[in-house]
Amino acid sequence: MRVIAGEKRGMRLYEPKDERIRPTTDKIKGAIFNTIQMRLDGESIFVDLFGGSGAMGIEALSRGAREAWFFDVDTESVRLIEKNVEKAGFGDRAKIGRMSAKAGIGHLAQGGVSCDFVFMDPPYVKGEESIALIEAMANKKILKSEGIIMMEHEKSVIMPLTICNFVKTKEKKYGNTVISYYGEE
């Protein structure tokens, strides 16, 4: 597991020991960032709702995002994120919260944070909970008008074309994994 591009290109990250934490593969991570790279800049705020190892947010910071928010309920995951953020030297640009994705959305809304990118890789297969999180983002208005939600899920999970005011703009398949992209209508 490594940083693919940007300031920390090639840096190896600490990997999770817990088999339940399954980082996004480098191939898929590269494809996601190639899709959003033209919109990722020094003012961008990137959010990873299921932080895991921290690899996605660290990639965003390496590629120039102003800040990244990481949320995870698991204590070991939070420790791993902290360790990887420290290794990368991004402590001043990273915000880490030990809380659920839904609580993280509420935390961002309460703090008045407007995000450019939200990445979700929920550890469950069912799409209903993911839909509920996207609905919460719509209700709490945490995404900027040009913002993008990226959701990694299994091919067996069919995500709807629209959720509240968000429309699926793109869907890319990588074997058994799918990335669904949502933006405002």
From TrEMBL:
It comes from Eubacterium barkeri (Clostridium barkeri). The keyword Transferase applies. Coiled coil: none annotated. The keyword Methyltransferase applies. CDD domains: AdoMet_MTases (cd02440). One of its GO terms (molecular function) is nucleic acid binding. InterPro entries: DNA_methylase_N6_adenine_CS (IPR002052), RNA_MeTrfase_RsmD (IPR004398), SAM-dependent_MTases_sf (IPR029063). Pfam families: Cons_hypoth95. This is 16S rRNA (Guanine(966)-N(2))-methyltransferase RsmD. Keywords: Methyltransferase, Transferase. One of its GO terms (biological process) is rRNA methylation. SUPFAM superfamilies: S-adenosyl-L-methionine-dependent methyltransferases. Gene3D superfamilies: Vaccinia Virus protein VP39.
